[in-house]
Amino acid sequence: MTSFAVHIPEAELEPDPLDPSQIVSGSPEVSGKVLWESEDGKQIRGIWQITPGVVTDTEANELFVVISGRATIAVTDGPTFDVGPGDACVLREGDETTWTVHETLRKAYHITLP
Questions:
Q1: Helix, coil or strand: residue 52
Q2: By CB distance 3.0 to 4.6 Å, which of 13, 18, 45, 64 could disulfide with 36?
Q3: What are the distances in angstroms from CA 65 to CA 2, 39, 77?
Q4: Is 67 helix (H, G, I), strand (E, B) or coil?
Q5: DSSP strand E in the chain: where?
Q6: Per-residue pLDDT, 63
Q7: CA 98, CA 42: separation in Å to the nearest integer?
């Protein structure tokens, strides 16, 4: 791995279409960019963005920091988080979540896969 710096708010992202079964309401669109991935594929760092709407997901072991936008993340049988710029969030492997995205949300993330 080489050292690098990225200006996250202006980084160009690539479309990453949602599975239609994940969309609860609205027409959210997802885009992202992997910045680095370990040789074994178990560590991933990148940028991810979603436009307003409501979606469900099953999470990986992830730490992320919100760069812009706002969302409410409800973990099934767990807590609900309101996140916005500057907030850090940790989601556990297997958490079933519902994301209500109020304003287009962009985050920088680190995922650890089993």
A1: coil
A2: 45
A3: 22, 24, 23
A4: strand
A5: 14-15, 23-25, 30-37, 43-50, 53-58, 61-75, 80-83, 88-91, 96-112
A6: 98
A7: 24
Helices (H), the chain: none
> What digits encode the pLDDT tens for the residues 75-102?
999 999 999 999 999 999 999 999 999 9
**Residue pair 103/49 in contact by the 8 Å Cβ criterion:** no
Nearest in space to 113 (alpha carbons), one of 55, 31, 49, 58: 58
Per-residue confidence (pLDDT) for residue 69, from 0 to 100: 98
Does residue 2 register a pLDDT over 90? no
Query: For the whole prediction, is pTM greater than 0.90?
Result: yes
Give yes or no for residue 74 having a pLDDT over 90: yes
CA distance linking residue 44 with residue 16, whole number of Å: 16
Region of 86 (left: φ > 0; alpha: ψ -120 to 50; beta: rest) is left
Residue 77 CA to residue 42 CA, distance in Å, equals 27
